TrEMBL record:
Domain of life: Eukaryota
The keyword Secreted appears for this protein: no
Record GO terms (molecular function): GTP binding; GTPase activity; magnesium ion binding
Keyword GTP-binding: yes
Name of a matching Pfam family: GTP1_OBG
Residue ranges that the Swiss-Prot or TrEMBL entry lists as coiled coil: none
Originating species: Octodon degus (Degu)
Protein name: GTP-binding protein 10
Subcellular location: Nucleus, Nucleolus
CDD domains xref list: Obg
SUPFAM superfamilies, per database record: Obg GTP-binding protein N-terminal domain, P-loop containing nucleoside triphosphate hydrolases
Primary location recorded for the protein, binned into one broad class: nucleus
């Protein structure tokens, strides 16, 4: 059942998880031989981690993908020591691995404001260099978002994500500890006869208002960015967090999950998505499933039932919708 989804992993939507960039440190400034003046050192190129950044934003903002630091100032009578060239900073998301053209790891950026020097500026002209400046370092680098899994399970609590993971991965999910986060998603691997593997992350349950950091909030949503594809898991009978909160139908759950993703980062909606409708073993599940399918075929016709601030800009288009029962294994 899950096997049919494998072919979809090649399609990434507009989600970008790697980028190739050209970087060059600034050239040094000219020395002043007559008075022994030293030219300024060229600026350096740094990669700096920012919480709100994505690789897609970086690519859109700098389509040339060229980053060159400023040159050092020449030595002159009024300033015998030339000033250093301006550094160039490349903003990247947290959880990035940086490698050179040969695949050698330069370093990783796992938390906000982590910095990594990728191209050094050239020395200014001085006695040692015969007062001639040196050129800055040129380097092609690769930025890779460290994916924690091929598939991320998205759903409100009690939708049956953990049960589904234990069914499809034939194992108790292992708990993986990642350097760039404090929450531990559960990872399971689906193994196939042809030795193909798909890693699936069961992420902590989302709740309404997660984008405002309620519950696991941002920690959860941060993990979703690190999966290649989303698998929404919803309970066919709907969801109610507690007696004080509103009951939501399966369709409302999907719309609200979509809205939470959008409010956190619109780009998450660009990822390829599948939908597993769980608990199909319950009474009247089939009737509810047919009703859900008609709602999903024309979601706009039902959006008037929602409060305006809960309606997403665009609804997720699922590549497959699969009725399942994590309990019976169907």
């Amino acid at each position: 059942m899950v096997r049919c989804g494998c072919v979809l992993f090649r399609k990434y939507g507009n989600f970008i998880d790697n980028l190739r960039l050209f970087t060059k440190g600034g050239s040094g400034g000219m020395g002043y031989p007559r008075l022994g003046g030293e030219g300024g050192k060229g600026g350096d190129v740094w990669v700096v981690a920012h919480k709100k950044m994505t690789l897609k934003q970086l690519k859109d903002k700098y389509p040339q993908k060229r980053f060159v630091a400023g040159g050092g100032a020449n030595s002159c009578i009024s300033a015998l020591k030339g000033s250093k060239g301006k550094d160039c900073e490349i903003p990247v998301p947290i959880g990035i691995s940086v490698t050179d053209e040969n695949g050698k790891i330069i370093g990783e950026l796992n938390k906000e404001e982590d910095r990594l020097l990728v191209a050094e500026g050239g020395l200014g002209g001085k006695l040692l260099t015969n007062f001639l400046p040196l050129k800055g370092q040129k380097r092609v680098i690769h930025l890779d978002l460290k994916l924690i899994a091929d598939v991320g399970l998205v759903g409100f609590p009690n939708a049956g994500k953990s049960s589904l993971l234990s069914q499809i991965s034939h194992a108790k999910p292992e708990i993986a500890n990642y350097a760039f986060t404090t929450v531990k998603p559960e990872l399971g691997k689906i193994m196939y006869d042809d030795f193909n593997q798909i890693s699936v992350a069961d992420l902590p349950g989302l709740i309404e208002g997660a984008h405002m950091n309620k519950g696991m909030g941002h920690k959860f949503l941060k993990h979703i960015e690190r999966t290649r594809q989303l698998l929404f898991v919803v309970d066919i009978c709907g969801f109610q967090l507690s007696s004080r909160t509103k009951y939501r139908t399966a369709f409302e759950t999907i719309i609200l999950l979509t809205k939470e993703l959008e409010l956190y980062k619109e780009e998450l909606q660009m990822k390829p998505a599948l939908l597993a409708v769980n608990k199909m073993d319950l009474p009247n599940a089939l009737d509810k499933f047919h009703e859900l399918m008609s709602q999903l075929q024309n979601p706009k016709a039902f959006l008037h039932l929602f409060e305006k601030n809960t309606i997403p800009e665009r609804t997720v288009e699922f590549q497959h919708i699969i009725p399942i029962s994590a309990v019976t294994g169907e």
